[in-house]
């Protein structure tokens, strides 16, 4: 029962997060670069993506660690089996992808507020209030340009994560 709940929470979090990153890169980022979105709309989408990243960034490692404890004891199973390697790849891809989303949105916020520190950013993210109604703040197209490399790399890693999860689901031998 707990195992099923852990799997469900894990898969739902993974689907929500990778789906959110892919959707932003597919549907939101290009429109922002074309100037078809307001600065507020794009900043809000980026902030919400960051919040999804942070919430699932708690749920995924917690449920993932529980599944490791359940399925990969002794821990040598992680390095001694192909499923174990797939799980280690999942963990690594999660870490790098998390960092890329955090950095991408931080770069956007620093376009508005160059001196914002890590503490403030970690507490606030990139709320629309940070735009401060400043008429001279950069437009959505400028924000999209600075975030683009980070978001594109995140989307590529999201695809790898989904392939990795599919290998596990498809019964990669132990
Ligand atoms: C902290 C990071 C993560 C850890 C430690 C972790 C760990 C695990 C473990 C141990 C399993 C069970 C493997 C098995 O059945 O043998 C699993 C399954 C799964 N994980 Fe993760 N995971 C992490 C992040 C992610 C992310 C970011 C995604 C997003 C796609 C994801 C998607 C999945 C899916 C869909 C499954 C089910 C695969 C199956 O049917 O067996 N995981 N994960």
From TrEMBL:
Transmembrane segments annotated in the record for this chain: 6-29, 49-72, 84-101, 150-172
Keywords: Membrane, Transmembrane, Transmembrane helix
Record protein name field: Copper resistance protein CopD
